[in-house]
Design brief:
By secondary structure, the protein is mainly beta. It is built from one helix and five strands.
Length: 67
């Protein structure tokens, strides 16, 4: 789980977190795959701890060409 801090001026209820009320300056854990959805709102949220998702391995593309 990633962590974000709510930096808005008043408490908010976050349905995604089970309708939890989050207070200003409170740090909460959010699902790794939803981290970007919070930090893309800089007036309200700031990142504290980024997701720990392992980078996906991408198979090397083979180029077909004349040999």
């Amino acid at each position: 789980m990633a962590k974000v801090r709510y930096i808005g001026p008043t408490a908010v209820t976050v349905p995604e977190l089970g309708h939890r009320t989050v207070q200003p300056d409170e740090v909460v854990e959010v699902p790794d795959d939803r981290y970007d959805g919070y930090v893309c709102q800089p007036p309200n949220w700031e990142g504290v701890e980024e997701p720990k998702i392992a980078p996906k391995k991408v198979a090397a593309k083979s180029e077909k060409g004349d040999v």
